[in-house]
Design brief:
The chain is of the alpha/beta class. The protein has one domain: Nucleotidyltransferase, domain 5, CATH 3.30.420. Helices cover 45% and strands 20% of the residues. A five-stranded mixed β-sheet has the order 3-2-1-4-5. Helix 4 packs across helix 5. The chain starts with 7 loop residues before the first strand and ends in a 7-residue tail after the last helix.
């Protein structure tokens, strides 16, 4: 049973992409998090980049209007050798952010390495390792068709972990963990049973 003073927060996480955009939503109730939804927005059949950006904008607005998240956590484009790919990913991210801004949603950006580190304890984890850890943490067995869905979910969970580990105040001290086992032991109340 939920206590009256326990705050709830819904977090929308997005992994932007121009072929597939992954998203995940979690509900945070005090120190606990639970899965609301995850999925992908496919755009590979659209050959015009501007139409892809329009689809990203419209789908992000629809997710916000449907689930009423309190904030958006989004993965930052990673540095790559192909500047055109970087430009397209930056545009995709910007359009998703603009959609959130039209609904006055707070936005936080996370580097891919930070997300992987937060979820698995390893900043170099594979997409499969991240997905497996999320399945364990959030108690779901379905394997999404696209790992982009769990990538989007990972951004949301990472954002939740940042607030929980630093406390609700901006000046809270940040905990450092030497591995996943230590984190789980220190945060047993956060794991859903």
């Amino acid at each position: 049973m939920q206590q009256a003073n326990t705050k709830e927060r819904i977090i929308l996480g997005i992994d932007p992409g121009t072929a597939v955009m992954g998203y995940g939503l979690v509900k945070e109730t005090g120190p606990k998090i639970e899965l609301i939804a995850l999925g992908v927005v496919k755009m590979e059949k659209l050959d015009d980049h501007m139409l892809k950006l329009q689809r990203i904008f419209e789908k992000t607005v629809a997710l916000i209007d449907n689930y009423k998240p309190d904030c958006l956590a989004i993965e930052a484009p990673f540095y790559g050798k192909n500047i055109q790919v970087m430009l397209k990913l930056g545009r995709a991210q910007g359009v998703a952010m603009a959609a959130a801004l039209t609904r006055n949603i707070d936005i936080t950006e996370y580097a891919p390495r930070k997300i992987k580190q937060s979820i698995t304890g390893n900043g170099n984890a594979t997409k499969e390792q991240v997905a497996a850890m999320l399945q364990t943490l959030l108690k779901f067995s379905e394997t999404p068709d696209f790992l982009d869905a769990t990538d989007g979910l990972a951004v949301a969970v990472c954002h939740s972990f940042q607030r929980i580990s630093t406390g609700s105040s901006k000046t809270g001290s940040k905990k450092s963990y030497s591995g996943w086992d230590t984190f789980v032991k220190d945060n047993a109340k956060r794991i859903m049973k």
